[in-house]
Specification:
It contains 5 helices and 7 strands. The chain is of the alpha+beta class. Keywords: Signal.
């Protein structure tokens, strides 16, 4: 009897030990799973930062496109004076105007520059631009406003020729080598009337661009 009791006690102790060992395994699995979670979180953070950097680089081309759209194309108009000895035109300056301006606006900008550069700011008006025989003819009005300051410039063989050639060369822009859409001819009035002075007779007739 004593031996049986001893064997029974040993068996019960061994079973208890086996049950205790098996119960610890789930805990080790749980701890190993929880240790992997931070690694997955770190990967998701990296992917977020890469997307942010891509969106920042895409803003530069749009800014450059806006700058290109604001650019304005310019065209040069020449300002001429006439050599006293040879009576040939010489370019003494240029102005730049917006290529998209109307022909009348370009002529107005030119008339202002010619008046200031060559004729002591005497008024020069663009009266009209007419089409004759498929050619654009500009009529330019020289205005005195009762002061008769233009009259001395019509006098004398040399003085009258200088005045006529200076006006004709500037408004026809015949020697302008740029790709310029311009008038085909020009004629001049004095205070709204045909110019009837001997030495500037060319101003009263239509002069055509070469």
């Amino acid at each position: 009897m004593t031996r049986k009791l001893i064997l029974t006690t040993v068996l019960m102790l061994s079973l208890t030990t086996m049950v205790g060992c098996n119960s610890t395994k789930p805990e080790s699995n749980t701890s190993s799973n929880s240790s992997n979670a931070p690694v997955q979180q770190e990967k998701s953070d990296d992917s977020t930062s890469s997307v942010t950097s891509d969106t920042n680089t895409n803003t530069k081309p749009k800014e450059e496109e806006k700058k290109e759209e604001t650019k304005i194309n310019k065209v040069k108009l020449s300002i001429y004076n006439v050599n006293v000895d040879t009576l040939e035109p010489n370019e003494c300056g240029t102005i730049e105007v917006d290529e998209n301006l109307s022909l009348e606006s370009k002529l107005k900008a030119l008339s202002k520059a010619v008046s200031e550069k060559n004729f002591n700011k005497l008024p020069i008006e663009i009266k009209s631009i007419d089409t004759k025989n498929s050619k654009k003819i500009a009529t330019i009005n020289l205005v005195d406003n009762g002061a008769n300051k233009w009259l001395p410039k019509f006098q004398g063989s040399t003085g009258g020729t200088l005045t006529a050639n200076t006006l004709i060369e500037n408004f026809l822009q015949s020697n302008n080598k740029s790709n310029l859409k311009w008038i085909d001819g020009v004629r001049f009035l004095y205070n709204g009337k045909t110019i009837d002075y001997e030495h500037v007779g060319d101003l009263s007739n239509i002069q055509y661009r070469n």
